[in-house]
């Protein structure tokens, strides 16, 4: 077992997103992500100051070629380095049809996640999932994988990386 605290990207984004009256399909105001980036940095600063030896799992929906999402990864990687922690990036891949099905789930709206299927398809066609080009990266196609199977693959990668470091 790997004990860790989850820092979901919407846990970080939603204090800002809740200030808006959004329906989940309208484009967000330009510049809104700068505010969520500040919240994320504050969370990371608190982790490095008060919980540097704890394990954390960060969720992040990054796309190739998106400067803002690269900065998000760099924020997380910087905090890991400041804590002298092992970073294990995980790229979750999903085919366009299944991703659109998942995005259309109305329960996403409760967490202020986009439910815009057309935008999801467009993103899938325009850009791939962000690749951090990091030696510990695990790539998992979750199109037909169960959450349990995915969690096991992630756990095994973490244990492998830790084992390699101690060898």
Structural commentary:
This protein is mostly helical and 167 residues long. Helix content is 51%, strand content 8%. It has seven helices and four strands. The protein has helices spanning 9-17, 32-50, 67-82, 96-103, 107-110, 117-126, 147-166, and strands at 5-7, 56-58, 90-93, 138-141. A two-stranded parallel sheet has the order 1-2. 8% of the residues are buried. The mean pLDDT is 89.
The rough form would be described as globular
Query: In percent terms, what proportion of residues is strand?
Result: 5-15%
Order of the strands making up the biggest sheet: 1-2
Main β-sheet: number of strands, strand sense, barrel status? Answer: 2 strands, parallel
Radius of gyration: 16 Å
Number of strands: 4
Number of helices: 7
Percent helix range = 40-55%
Give the key terms:
51% helix, two-stranded parallel sheet, 167 residues, mainly alpha, globular
Briefly, what is this?
The protein has 167 residues and is mainly alpha-helical. The chain has helices at residues 9-17, 32-50, 67-82, 96-103, 107-110, 117-126, 147-166; strands at residues 5-7, 56-58, 90-93, 138-141.
